[in-house]
Specification:
Blueprint lengths: L13 E2 L4 E2 L26 E6 L5 E6 L2 E6 L4 E7 L5 E6 L5 E6 L10 E6 L4 E7 L6 E4 L3 E5 L3 E6 L5 E6 L9 E2 L7 E5 L5 E6 L4 E6 L5 E6 L5 E6 L4 E6 L5 E6 L7 E6 L5 E6 L3 E6 L4 E2 L5 E2 L51 E4 L6 E5 L4 E6 L3 E6 L6 E2 L1 E7 L4
Parallel strand pairs: 28-32
Antiparallel strand pairs: 1-2, 3-4, 4-5, 5-6, 7-8, 8-9, 9-10, 11-12, 12-13, 13-14, 15-16, 16-17, 17-18, 19-20, 20-21, 21-22, 23-24, 24-25, 25-28, 26-27, 29-30, 30-31, 31-33
Length: 408
């Protein structure tokens, strides 16, 4: 039976059992990957294959049928692009704002197949490392010290400097390539689908602790971690509920409701102060939820969330308050029937969204929090939005910016 273990190309001048270094005698473009003068001009339309934020949510990477493009978010503008004749990239993963990117070719790419991960140094204009697998790569995540490659049934964790294989994790079928990392230098937490439907596996590598969380009854559709890896937010393929967990003990801290009808949740984002959660779905609405989890600062003091509107009613999503829950935080206006819990259907007592923004339906959008209570939204239709929301009153968000960054 053929496995998904990584292999090295036969023609690579330097290879290891872990990965392949692209070594070249001069500082010119790599023979493995280069950007020839392509017969592509700005007026040509490109198909958009993927969109993703960098780790700080201040840049947007777009994989296209002609290559890739990088955009600065605030203010929004194209930073640079790389076009080529052989085809595009289905995965473009940035490493913060550095010149290092991870690239995975699209199926139609004649030179860079979808089973190969290229580590590209744009400053040197060459490939500095690559990994080849026997099956299609579903996702790639980068930290300053790690490379994580996601296949459909397995995840590989490598050291960034020497490409040494450090960990292998088996998962349930994961065609979405779901995986998320913490990005603080002093913690390394990884969350991914577990071995069973609806289960999330959390690896605290620094503590050598593995935690399995039974997050949902259905398959996991979306997940994200806080930058320190202490909190996890998840949604299932049903798309009605989003749950927030403590990754250390697996306890449920809060549950919020996107809606009643089934939906595909495409993106979940937590604000840096863990006061807000944003989610987008194919229903065409971005929802903002007010979180009640407490924030752990660098001084290890617990700072509750005190923002509370006059119309908000206190409401808890569990029978007992967890130590990470702030009792001083208000719920949401649509939760005003919480006193009828156990009498009315469950969705009447759920915590509903605090603010909303309407978008076209059936288009994939990803969300992130910007500066000054703004939300950044990018769509697979080549659109970018920046919206603001009222921290006290919530309601409909105000559109501040709308840009068509790519003609699709």
């Amino acid at each position: 039976m053929m496995t998904d273990t990584p292999s090295s190309p036969m023609n690579s001048p330097v290879s290891t059992a872990q990965g392949t270094f692209c070594e070249h005698p001069n500082s010119g473009a790599s023979s493995s990957l280069s950007w020839p003068d392509a017969d592509i001009n700005d007026s040509d339309e490109s198909n958009l294959f993927s969109i993703s934020w960098n780790q700080d949510y201040d840049c947007l990477a777009a994989g296209t049928s002609h290559g890739f493009r990088i955009y600065n978010c605030e203010p929004f503008k194209e930073t640079f692009r790389r076009d080529l004749k052989s085809g595009g990239f289905k995965i473009v993963e940035m490493l913060f704002r550095s010149n290092v990117l991870a690239l995975v070719g699209a199926v139609a790419n004649s030179h860079y197949p979808p089973n190969k991960v290229l580590i590209w140094d744009d400053h040197q204009s060459r490939c500095i490392g690559e990994f080849t697998f026997r099956s299609e790569v579903r996702g790639v995540k980068l930290r300053r010290d790690r490379i994580v490659v996601v296949l459909e049934h397995k995840i590989y964790v490598y050291h960034l400097m020497d490409l040494k294989l450090l960990h292998q994790i088996e998962t349930v079928a994961n065609p979405r390539g779901l995986c998320c990392l913490s990005y603080h230098s002093n913690t390394f937490v990884l969350a991914c689908p577990g071995r069973c439907k609806g289960q999330v596996r959390v690896e605290h590598f620094g503590l050598n602790v593995t935690k399995s969380i039974n997050a949902h009854d259905s398959q996991i559709a979306c997940l994200t971690l806080t930058k320190d890896g202490l909190l996890l937010a998840t949604a299932s393929v049903k798309g009605t509920l989003i749950r927030i967990f403590n990754t250390m003990d697996g306890s449920t801290l809060q549950e919020v409701r996107r809606g009643v009808d089934r939906a595909e949740i495409n993106s979940i984002s937590l604000s840096q102060n863990v006061q807000w959660l944003a989610a987008s779905s194919d229903k065409g609405t971005v929802h903002i939820f007010n979180l009640r989890v407490r924030v752990f600062g660098e001084d290890s003091l617990i700072r509750p969330n005190y923002v509370q509107g006059p119309a908000l009613l206190h409401q808890n999503s569990s029978t007992a308050l967890d130590p990470l829950i702030s009792p001083n935080t208000g719920g949401n206006p649509n939760s005003s029937l919480s006193f009828m819990r156990g009498v009315l259907p469950k969705y009447f007592s759920s915590e509903w969204s605090f603010a909303q923004f309407r978008l076209p339906e059936n288009t994939k959008f990803i969300v992130a929090f910007g500066s000054h209570n703004t939300v950044l939204i990018a769509g697979m239709d080549g659109s970018f939005y920046r919206c603001s929301f009222d921290q006290v009153n919530g309601g409909e968000m105000l559109q501040k910016e709308c840009i068509r960054f790519l003609k699709c």
